[in-house]
Amino acid sequence: MAMPETYLEKWAQLNQDNQQQIGHFIDFLLAQQHREALAGKARQPLNYGVFRGKIKVPDSFDDPMPEFKEYM
Questions:
Q1: Average pLDDT score, the chain
Q2: Distance, C-alpha 22 to centroid of its chain
């Protein structure tokens, strides 16, 4: 396995577009590593119905809005 100094030397030899692509790839790998670390942790169980009775949807929710009458 190459040492980090070797990586930097090789990176410096690339043109700017390729250097930018390497940066994006590193970001991708870090995000993937983070997702894998989160997947390994135990998830907290979902608590369904926690807002039951706290949110009221009006009976007129599905009625047409007066602002859009001309489009109907």
A1: 88
A2: 20
Contact status, residue 37 vs residue 29, Cβ threshold 8 Å: no
Hey, how many other C-beta atoms are within 10 angstroms of the C-beta on 22? Answer: 14
Q: Which residue carries 């990176």 as its tokens?
A: 11
Cα(40)–Cα(57) distance, integer angstroms: 38
For 14, which DSSP code? S
At 24-33, the pLDDT tens digits run 999 999 999 9
- DSSP string over 20-65: HHHHHHHHHHHHHHHHHHHHHSPPPPP-TTTTTTT----GGGGSPP
